[in-house]
């Protein structure tokens, strides 16, 4: 599967989806007919043809094989991740999960240009680590991480405070939860991820990665109580497979 990124305007992305029969996708608002005039649509289609993303054939217009595979991934997605960066200079990302992961991210400050690319399941977590500069050194086992917290008074206090944190609920955006944590805890989160199942549109999981005095904290809220876990090899491995398992 090609992981090359393609750059598209919002309208171009919408045209590609509409060519595949997609009129609505979760977490991304497509422009309605009233918001686009004929000239803009013609220019968008013409630009996609020049880029080689659309092909004109006797029976009509079709997508290039590369773009067809990307839109097919979006069409077949069973869930999506809304990825919110702690660093406001970083763009938001939406990851559509199916057989592969189709990643859509803002590419400019005008909220009109986007990059679209595919990631294989085994490469998605490594991409998140690189993109958000997650700490990679001194990763330890879950038992070692627990022992480190027990021996570190500051870490033990952080854990106690985080376990007492009141989760604002699914109705609040994950950015709201991240800002609350940043203000109350004194550390800006690395990132927040909201998992949304496509079939019912209900939020299933929220995950926030937060710097700590001795380790990175994983704050994990699903259907039950808030879980707080220190960074470990096992925890990262679980996160690497969790979203795909939940999407099935």
Give a description of the structure:
The protein is 38% helix and 26% strand. It is α+β, with helices and mostly antiparallel strands and 248 residues long. It has a nine-stranded antiparallel β-sheet with strand order 1-7-6-5-4-8-9-10-11, with helices on both faces. The protein has a two-stranded antiparallel sheet with strand order 2-3. Helix 4 (121-131) packs across helix 8 (233-247) and helix 5 crosses helix 6. It is elongated, with a radius of gyration of 20 Å. The model has no long low-confidence stretch (mean pLDDT 85).
Helix content: 25-40%
Radius of gyration: 20 Å
Strand count, sense and closure of the main sheet? 9 strands, antiparallel
Number of strands: 11
| Side-by-side strand order of the widest sheet | 1-7-6-5-4-8-9-10-11
Strand content: 25-35%
Annotation field: number of helices = 8
Instruction: Give the ordered list of helices and strands.
Output: EHHEEHEEEEHHHHEEEEH
Q: State the end-to-end CA separation.
A: 20 Å
Poorly predicted segments: none
- What would you call the structural class? alpha+beta
Report mean pLDDT, rounded to a whole number. 85
Based on CA inertia axes, which overall geometry fits?
A: elongated
């Amino acid at each position: 599967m090609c992981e090359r990124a393609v750059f598209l305007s919002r309208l171009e992305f919408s045209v590609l989806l509409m060519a595949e029969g997609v009129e609505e996708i979760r977490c991304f608002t497509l422009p309605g007919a009233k918001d686009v005039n004929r000239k803009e649509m013609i220019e968008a289609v013409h630009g996609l043809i020049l880029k080689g993303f659309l092909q004109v054939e006797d029976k009509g217009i079709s997508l290039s094989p590369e773009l067809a595979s990307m839109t097919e991934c979006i069409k077949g997605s069973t869930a999506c991740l809304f990825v919110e960066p702690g660093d406001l200079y970083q763009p938001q990302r939406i990851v559509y999960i199916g057989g592969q992961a189709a990643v859509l991210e803002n590419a400019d400050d005008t909220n009109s240009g986007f990059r679209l690319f595919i990631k294989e399941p085994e490469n998605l977590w490594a991409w998140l680590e690189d993109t958000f500069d997650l700490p990679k050194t001194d990763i330890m086992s879950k038992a070692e991480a627990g022992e480190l917290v027990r021996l570190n008074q500051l870490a033990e206090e952080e854990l106690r405070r985080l376990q007492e944190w009141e989760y604002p609920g699914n109705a609040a955006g994950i950015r709201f939860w991240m800002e609350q944590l940043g203000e109350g805890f004194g550390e800006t989160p690395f990132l927040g991820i909201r998992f949304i199942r496509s079939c019912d549109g209900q939020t299933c999981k929220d995950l926030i990665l937060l710097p700590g005095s001795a380790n990175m904290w994983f704050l994990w809220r699903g259907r039950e109580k808030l879980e707080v876990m220190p960074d470990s090899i096992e925890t990262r491995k679980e996160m690497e497979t969790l979203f795909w398992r939940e999407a099935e």
